[in-house]
Amino acid sequence: MQTARRTHGFRESVIRGMTRLARQYHSINLAQGFPNFPAPEMLKEAAARAIHDDINQYAITWGAQRLREALARKYQAWYGLETDPEREITVTCGATEAMIATLLAVVNPGDEVIVFEPFYENYGPDTILADAMPVYVPLQPGHPLDLERLADAFSSRTRAIIVNTPSNPSGRVLSRAELEAIRDLCVRHDVLAVTDEIYEHIRFEGEHIPLASLAGMRDRTVTISGASKTFSVTGWRIGWIVAPAELTDAIRKVHDFLTVGAPAPLQEGVAAALDGLQPPFYEALAAAYRARRDLLFNALSGSGFICTPPQGAYYILSDFSALASLPRSGPPLSDTEFAVWLSREIGVTPVPGSSFFREGGGGSSLVRFVFCKTDDILEEAAQRLRSLSVISPGGFRNRASEPAIRSGLQQ
Ligand SMILES: Cc1ncc(COP(=O)(O)O)c(C=O)c1O
Description:
The chain has 2 domains: 5-32 and 281-389, Aspartate Aminotransferase, domain 1 (Alpha-Beta Complex); 54-277, 3-Layer(aba) Sandwich (Aspartate Aminotransferase, domain 2), CATH 3.40.640.10. Helix 2 (41-52) runs antiparallel to helix 9 (264-276), helix 3 (65-79) packs parallel to helix 9 and helix 4 runs parallel beside helix 5 (123-129). The strands form 3 sheets. A 7-stranded mixed beta sheet has the order 2-8-7-6-5-3-4, with helices on both faces. A 4-stranded antiparallel beta sheet has the order 9-10-13-12. Strand 3 (112-117), helix 5 and strand 4 (133-138) form a beta-alpha-beta unit. It has 12 helices and 13 strands. By secondary structure, the chain is of the alpha/beta class. Residues 33, 94-96, 120, 164, 168, 196, 198, 226, 228, 234, 239 line the site of pyridoxal-5'-phosphate.
């Protein structure tokens, strides 16, 4: 049977492949970006109560009233953004659905969409599904956005720019000046900004500035975020979109045909958390992630990886090419070969860096590690990574036949 051409360019999710590899080698999975710690009680209790109260049927397609109202209060309180929950907010099945529903609703076949590279894995397939042409602009860890290259990427064919801050995988938190430069280009070229702000509360430096809050951007920004990362509930699939009414209208139609709606009782749980959790919760979240970042960053840089501490999100993109303990015979290891080698020999599994770049676009000496894990797992990973600095070149162990280290480390 033939399959549609649009799927032929899709790669299997590299991250899921690495998870299988981690299982095979009894390795610590620092590939997949989901937390392994509990969600806030308030959220879970409210969702459980909603199920007991038989909130089990379809919610309103564009989101439960209570959640949309809680979101309007949140955007007002945090960012001074006035939004109309009736006409400008849509609840989706995660930020993932929010992004594809938005692109399908606002981009025409052949339109160009600017994407920063390295990028979150889904943006590539998203642009393909929307028949758009991605145009890449580099955004490297620890480096400012190259404003000249950004300006060059805009043309009369540009319809939208995807802006992810704090960014996965670069860890950059875009500054006000960078966001204002993006704003100026969007206004000059009449381009729409689609922002992915899923890590808005996981930040170690700088402030989170929604692009929509900058003068001139309210009417040309689609703001996407969600509950997955802030409340450690990646499996609940609750995300949202804030957009001007006219855009929301089109986005809601696509969303309705794609999914009808997000899980009704879980929307109640997220609404309760948005209203009930106070600033100390968000401060504690960022502080805990900062400690995890420092632990993993120190282990990586201490073992010879070249990396920059991320300003936000929970990933460290690391260059492995200077590691003293790499096998010296034969050609240099590719990022995929290195990720397999590290899983097998050291027992820590990252994601190959090239999966965050277009085909042939780079990343061949990079791997990405997550730090959204409890201290016991990160400390064990740190200890294993440190062994890299004591293994002599070519003299690495073969751990492939070792029994599982501790069942708690398997995910
Ligand atoms: C940048 C970015 N956007 C979106 C998502 C997925 O969000 P959700 O779980 O809300 O679909 C992720 C998950 O890793 C991400 O890193």
